[in-house]
């Protein structure tokens, strides 16, 4: 039986060789993480290069966003959004990312996926949010957003909720939700816009 010192020595010698390993399942080479994890990832990420990804890969990454893979997934998606996605796909993907991030309570990095040829993406304002389109949300998502309204997320949450209330909610759900939002707003010292979720 090898002594502990021999085992440690073997691991130390094997380290530089095994740091680049082949994963037979995905046919790619796994490389070690950068030595300085505190360094900003944007210092070595090239957003001008092609992503090498297909649309279905990007959609899957967005669908599976969670707190554990959030940062890495956004970095993988960014080159595709900046250089390969058309305007409609870009806006659709960014809205889905914003919604996912908001539901998880995570911030979107400043200037994320910013393309100089496009105006800065924002959920704020009527021009950036199509209130006639389907919200892509379910009632439980809307109820969750309302229950978690705060000073920090009030405006963006209302913009996320409004398409659902306008186009998909029953009259009873619309009335109940608006009343709950107004009650929350009053406690927060906020005002709900007069035109919010007003059906013709």
Amount of beta strand? under 5%
Derived structural class: mainly alpha
Q: What's the SSE pattern?
A: HEEHHHHHH
For the biggest β-sheet, the strand order reads 1-2
**What count of structural domains?**
2
Distance linking N and C termini: 82 Å
Tell me, briefly, the overall form: elongated
The major beta sheet can be summarized as: 2 strands, antiparallel
**What is the radius of gyration?**
23 Å
Tell me the quaternary state. Answer: single chain
Number-wise, the strands total: 2
List the uncertain runs.
1-48, 124-129
Summed over residues and divided by their number, the pLDDT gives a mean of 73
Bin the helical content: 40-55%
